[in-house]
Design a protein that fits this description.
The complex is a heterodimer of chains A (328) and B (319). Chain A is 38% helix and 20% strand. By secondary structure, chain A is an alpha/beta fold. In chain A, the strands form 3 sheets. A 7-stranded mixed β-sheet of chain A has the order 3-2-4-5-7-6-12, sandwiched between helices. The radius of gyration of chain A is 20 Å and the shape is globular. Chain B has one domain (5-301): Rossmann fold. Chain B has a 6-stranded parallel β-sheet with strand order 2-1-3-4-8-7, sandwiched between helices. In chain B, strands 5-6 form a two-stranded antiparallel sheet. Chain B is globular. The chains are: A alpha/beta (328), B alpha/beta (319). At the A-B interface, α3, α4 and α5 of A face α5 and α6 of B.
Chain lengths: 328, 319
Amino acid sequence: MNEYSYMEALRSALRDEMLRDQDVFVMGEDIGIYGGAFGVTQGLLERFGKDRVINTPISEGGFTGVAVGAALTGSRPVVEIMFMDFVGLIMDQLVNQASKLRYVLGPQAKCPLVVRVACGAGRCYGPTHSQTLESWLAHIPGLKVVAPSTPSDADGLLRAAIRDDNPVVFIEHKLLYGEKGPVASPGGEPMPLGEARVVQEGDDVTVVAWSWMLAEAEKAAAELEEQDISVDLVDLRSLSPIDHETVVDSVKHTGRLLIVEEGYRTAGMSGEIAMRVFEQAFDYLEAPPRRLATPDIPIPASPILEKAAVPNTAAIVASVKDLMAYQG
Amino acid sequence: MAIAEKQLLKHYKTMLVIRLFEERVEELFGKGVIRGTAHLAIGQEAIAVGVASALKEHDYITSTHRGHGHFIARGADPNRVMAEIYGKKTGYSGGRGGSQFMADLSLGFIGANGITGGSIPVATGAALSAKLKESGKVAICLFGDGASNQGTFHESLNMAATWQLPVVYVCENNLYAMSTHVKDAMAIENIAGRAIAYGMPGKVVDGNDLFAVHDAVSDACVRARGGEGPMLLECKTYRLSGHSRGDQCNYRDVEEVQEWGKSDPIVRLQTALLERGLLTGERDAEIRESVAAVVDQAVAFAEESEYPDVSTLEEGVFA
């Protein structure tokens, strides 16, 4: 298998889908000659021209709405929102337009729209350029939300998102763009949306993570392995719909659950995931489920503060050890 | 292109259907027969019909929260529009959308919209599809004076002009955004004047004159179809009815309503038809009788239709 960076995987998936289907186009700020704020769309303008690589004015709400209209009339737009923090500017388009079309208008309407966003802290970009707001989106019926953590998933899930007839928010993490990894089938098949991936099997504790937190959890799992704690590590990959079955099955096996997310703690994804486990695997629990999340604060810019705000490997190791030590 | 004379009676009838349909909706709300809310377009019928009469069969049109008339003018079945307002299974959205959320994509009517200004980028996107696919279609975007103060208006018009999209923005300026008069919401006389800021032509149109609306929209469509880009039309009109159910109209004088009543678009068309000898008193009575039958039928259809099956509540969220 070839090694690709997460960014290369995204770029090749975009290119291939644009080659495969004339109805696919990309739009967003500085995605043309500049190649996108993080470089994902580099080279697409030269290849496909400005009709299909549409460089927009700074009008997130407007151009996302334009994409909804285009999707409703037979196009398959892929919109880039530079920072996930800016979803505040496009929420009406997602919440009141794109996500409701199918349910209300029925089979006559489809909205094959992909909105790519870059989430996450780690670059000291400060309170308005570092957030992970996925729970806002997962809360909305009719939106699909995915957050790949590896180049291979970035490739397969982006292909699937573009071919899906529903609006999909595709969450990329800034720190992952340069990460390299094998891509199962470059130029190949889409991966199904809505399926979690068991990264490694283990017996003692279930750790659920996604996006950048998965990388931190993998490092933690390796450390814990050395201390004879065996982690069943689940990469959720899809935040709507959530593959609760995989999580519940894992917890039934291990009896312990830690959820790690980069979003804010209150009303985040963890509460939802844990509640499903309570509903479906309560009797299997040997300890109360735990979560790690960003505390309920704006994410500070200062490196030392930012680092302290977001869950990391050490916190995951400590949390798992607490879970293992729980005596009831 | 001017309206063909033989089409005029048809348009007159459609305006009457919209008027009577809206009056019936108001009455049914008053009686508590139908629930929720409805925004009536009584007094604005010339815009709905003038726009629809200028379009080609495959063109796109987006509407607003005040959209029953737009939809009927575009060819929607009044039975199914009424059934939707009733929340019935036979409505355009199977009862899921209600008064403000209906569409028929086969008619190019890609949606009424419950969010003020919500459809402006959507219409712009339909025009983008038309341009990319070289389909020759034009998108018509209807919205009110209130929506022209939303960010979506400014962002969309800027993009449409920059990209020379085949879209015609038709603002129905009925003077009030709910209760707020345009003078309290903008410091300019004409919304059409905003067009110059985006680099597109703007034009003020007498929105209560079917001929004026038709001609202005036709000309704008010819431009748009010819690749000359978008245009902003401001149709001056007046909502003779309240904003929605429950509106006491305490923000405007009875005199003002009466004054605008003299410019009732249906009366104006009727007068023009009589003057041109295209309509007689007798024919008018026949038309009005047939219009009453259409609306009676719509109510009967809605009454007789079933409510959606509750077991389908969670179905169809995703394609």
